Amino acid sequence: MWFSNCRQLILINFYSNLKRSQVKYWSSLPLKDSFGRKHDYLRISLTEKCNLRCLYCMPEDGVDLSPKSSLLQRDEINRLARLFVNSLGVKKIKLTGGEPLVRSDCLSIVNDLAELKSIGLSTIGITTNGLVLGRSIKKLVDSGLDSVNISLDTLRPEKFELITRRKGFNLVIKSIEQCLSAGLPKIVKINCVIMRGLNDDEIISFVELTQDQQLEVRFIEYMPFDGNKWSQGKMLPAHEIMKTIKGKYGDEINPIAKDNPSDTATLFTINGFKGRFGFIGSMTQNFCSTCNRLRIAADGNLKVCLFGAEEVSLRDPLRSGWSDDQIINLIESTLSRKRERHAGAINISKSPNRPMILIANRMFSSFSLSSTSSSTINQTHNDGKEPIDQQSSDDNQLSHINQHGSAEMVDISGKHETRRVAQAMGTIYIGPKVIKLIVNNQLTKGDVLSTARIAGILAAKSTANLIPLCHLIQLTKVTIDFEIIDNEMIQIDCIVSTISRTGVEMEALTGVSIAALTIYDMCKSANKSMVIKEIKLIKKTGGKSDYQIPTTTTTTTPTINK
After folding, report:
1. Cα separation of 423 and 494, whole Å?
2. Measuring CA to CA, which residue among 76, 81, 98 is closest to residue 41?
3. What is the dihedral of CA 111, 116, 121, 127, to 10 degrees?
4. Are 91 and 113 in contact (CB under 8 A)?
């Protein structure tokens, strides 16, 4: 953690001190992460709203929508898109949602993006549920739209209502027909999420759609997001779907070479068929090594990985007067921390992430380039009236860097002593076998939880010796408790108190971390695949502001005529 923060500070310091001409030259280079992956594909969510309620996308009890003022406005989308295309080499932009076509200015946004084709943008696409697409597809194509992805998970009207919790099957089929005759430069794509026991009996019917029509049907593995009740048993792997198709068509199936190494779908065609089908095996055949995608959520948060909870706000810097070069620096610095691959289906399902409809935790950070006065995020938007999110206030800026961008310890001599309390929690997944050994005190190294408690308390008291910029604080109390959950994991709870001029968040987090590592050390002879995760600050009180972690609320195949 400390090393990662220092690396971030070094990057920010380096980029912010480049001359403008140097920044311009550097920004014209391909947008790459630390693994050399070139990122030239940007997905922009226009809205969190949707006129359907699909089972795998929308949590059953809905989601808390952001206020309209928190969403990116048309001019902000245009500015960001222009930056990504003109300065960062993005070639393809796809508009998503929610349902992008419920946004009234969607057509105008497509017009704006079309102007970027003169400076390097090659493709404008849209992913839609197709419900209202038919009435606007011709205008969209005339405005510059190149490609359409339509989400459709069943070819049976009654099952459509079950999956989407809404009517509208015939409208979607009609939209597909109109897309086929609208003159789109690229093939119309159908995105189909296959779920075991729900629509896996329709695989062949979907393939048959490609027999007489220029369609690309893409079978997508069921992916875990907050609130969509994902389970490994419901997910049908791509190889099982292919087995079903081979059972009917066998040697008539032919692979199609990828146009681009970054293409996510593995495509095939069948002898005599006009269209093609393929698979997006995000869970079992991940394409992380060639990932070229970045995502901007409707609220302006940049996500460098679909399955990562980490986000950085681009909206707040836009509304605080940041220059183009500063925003470019922020994007580059964020991308530099992109991981080599996602954690895998099981681990993803146990980690917090936005519900798919919003890609309700809004886990993001905003930080400034301290060498310029305009970089500080103000307390108001451009109009000076509406407060910005609390998470992007001045209290959340990097406080451990000086005016020259160098790391230093904060001077707390001018602060008042108050009673301060912080609570942190974390989890270690160790499995039922080891849980039983711990409960029965049968591990050779002794009493695991008692030892971990002592280690965590000692670590909390020694935080200033472990974290370079932390102050030496006299603690008044440290408590560490453990709870066994689902007979497979231990949740660690650390509460630290002090009467001091500064808070004890780091002491609480350190206590949890070392307690978890101690459990790992004492149990590793029985299980070396334990996982420590979700170490986080739960709340803090005292000082200038209090904090508490946010909580979430929460048949016959139809004919498509060209």
Report:
1. 6
2. 81
3. -30
4. no
Peptide bond into 98 cis (omega under 30): yes
User: pLDDT tens-digit profile of 326-375?
Assistant: 999 999 999 988 888 644 444 444 444 444 444 333 333 333 333 333 33
Q: What is the value of pTM for the model shown?
A: 0.60
Please state, in angstroms and rounded to a whole number, the distance separating the CA atoms of residues 451 and 6. Answer: 31
CA gap 307, 286 in Å, rounded: 12
The strand ranges marked E within 175-238 are 188-194, 215-221
Q: Name 479's bridge partners.
A: 495
Q: Which of 2-16, 273-287, 358-372 has the lowest mean pLDDT?
A: 358-372
Alpha carbons 144 and 151: distance in angstroms, whole number: 21
**Are 251 and 226 contacting, i.e. CB atoms less than 8 angstroms apart?**
no
Residues sharing a CB contact under 8 Å with residue 543, sequence separation 6 or more, in sequence order: 415, 418, 420, 502, 503
DSSP type of residue 557: P
Does the N-terminal peptide bond of residue 233 adopt cis geometry, omega within 30 degrees of 0? no
Chain centroid to CA 483: 29
Phi-psi region of 532 (alpha: psi -120 to 50; beta: other; left: phi over 0): beta
How far apart are alpha carbons 148 and 7 in whole angstroms?
40
DSSP 68: G
Q: Give 52's contacts (C-beta < 8 A, 6+ positions apart).
A: 58, 99, 129, 131, 164, 165, 166, 168
Query: How many Cβ atoms sit within 10 Å of the Cβ of residue 171?
Result: 15
**Measured CA angle at 226 (ends 510, 101), to 5 deg:** 130
> Rg of the chain's alpha carbons, rounded to an integer?
26
521 labelled catalytic: yes
In Å, what is the CA distance from 81 to each residue of 31, 101, 110, 314?
14, 18, 11, 12
SS3 at position 383:
coil
> Dihedrals φ, ψ of 465, to 5°?
-85, -15
Q: How much is the pLDDT for 138? A: 97
Domains assigned to the chain: 29-358 (3.20.20.70), 418-548 (3.30.70.640)
Is residue 53 within 8 Å of 162, Cβ to Cβ? Answer: no
Task: Tell me what pLDDT residue 30 has.
Answer: 73
| Tens-digit pLDDT profile for residues 27-44 | 446 799 888 999 999 999
CA atoms of 509 and 190, how far apart (whole Å): 46
Q: For 528, phi and psi rounded to 5 degrees?
A: -90, 0
Selecting among 75, 263, 521, 546, the annotated active-site residue is 521
Tokens at residue 297, please?
Answer: 């959520």
Please report which helix (H) or strand (E) contains residue 163, including its range: helix 157-164
Dihedral of alpha carbons 387, 392, 396, 397, sign: negative
Q: Are 550 and 361 in contact (CB under 8 A)?
A: yes
Sequence-distant (≥ 6) Cβ neighbours of residue 280 within 8 angstroms: 218, 219, 220, 221, 238, 264, 265
Name the token pair of 158.
């009654």
